[in-house]
Specification:
With 297 residues, the chain is α/β, with parallel strands linked by helices. Helices cover 33% and strands 24% of the residues. It has nine helices and nine strands. A hairpin with a 4-residue loop joins strand 7 and strand 8. Helix 6 packs antiparallel against helix 8 (247-264). The protein starts with a strand and ends in a 7-residue tail after the last helix.
């Protein structure tokens, strides 16, 4: 049995979370078209008879502008310490720009082997992709480059098999049926945040946080009772989430409830509240209340 930790890094919207879900074979990390969808390090676990891979999905590379941004940067830095491999994810469709080449340079300097996954090849023409791949030839410390489409599941098996050679441990860290180390309470909050990002599209305020007030299970009725606050920074953001006559909030709740029931395997009674907390992303108390505890990184 070979095992090891693999940090997944890259710019925002490069496809890291979609790739994590494909590598694990199950949805672990939320996905949306919006930058900085991932705020925490998300652990996904893939186990076969001969190996166990622990993937750590990180927030997109960013320059922090508030305490939440500082927290996200620390998550990225922590994820690349003492790992068996760093998997740098680059967007093949948008092209590999100077900032991504700078990331390749940065992660080449680490002790861990560097592997590159170029994503979104399903929407990229080969004549456009090949010149982009040639840009990586100037980095001799890149061990391998894989072209993948996580959305179409193309090249994912090859990438996973290629990563096996970098596993350096010989113990089983998690039970074979575990796919993440994140608690259900965290996953329930991330599920709601994902639905807000998807339902509100371009109108959603970027500073949305989720606070879990209650999560209880009634064994007789086989129902989860979940109560959550949707935190926004400005009073003007509240009607965006609420929608006309509450239509947007109802849509968010309907989609969130369906995904939570799939996650939990039982019915869900969901109550949502919109709370305005000015500048919560710069408030240490609010960050801690929502779950972004800097001291834990």
């Amino acid at each position: 049995m070979k095992s090891g930790y693999i940090a997944i890094v890259g710019k925002a919207n490069a496809g890291k979370s979609t790739l994590l879900n494909s590598l694990v074979g199950q949805k672990i990390s939320i996905v949306s078209p919006k930058p900085q969808t991932t705020r925490d390090n998300i652990t996904g676990i893939y186990t076969e008879s001969d190996c166990q891979m622990i993937f750590v999905d990180t927030p997109g590379a960013l320059r922090p502008s508030n305490r939440l941004g500082d927290y996200m940067v620390k998550n990225i830095e922590a994820a690349t310490v003492d790992v068996d491999c760093v998997l740098l994810v680059l967007d093949g469709h948008d092209g590999i720009d100077e900032s991504e080449l700078a990331l390749a340079e940065k992660y080449s300097a680490l002790d861990a082997p560097l592997v590159v996954a170029v994503t979104k090849t399903d929407i990229t023409q080969p004549e456009k992709l090949f010149p982009e791949l040639e840009k990586l030839n100037s980095f001799p410390k890149i061990r391998e480059v894989f072209a993948v489409s996580a959305k179409k599941n193309r090249g994912v098996d090859e990438l996973r098999n290629g990563l096996k050679k970098y596993l350096g441990d010989e113990i089983m860290y998690f039970a074979e049926d575990e796919v993440t180390d994140r608690p259900l309470r965290f996953l329930v909050c991330e599920t709601l945040r994902e639905k807000i990002l998807l339902c509100c599209e371009s109108e959603v305020p970027h500073g949305v946080g989720i606070m879990l007030n209650k999560m209880e299970f009634d064994e007789q009725k086989r129902v989860w009772f979940i109560d959550q606050n949707i935190i926004v920074e400005k009073q003007s953001h509240k009607p965006i989430i609420l929608g006309k006559n509450g239509a947007m909030l109802k849509s968010i709740a309907t989609h969130a409830r369906a995904s939570m029931e799939k996650l939990l395997g039982d019915r869900v009674f969901l109550e949502l509240w919109i709370k305005v907390k000015p500048n919560w992303r710069d408030n240490p108390y609010m960050l801690n209340e929502i779950g972004y505890d800097k001291s834990s990184v």
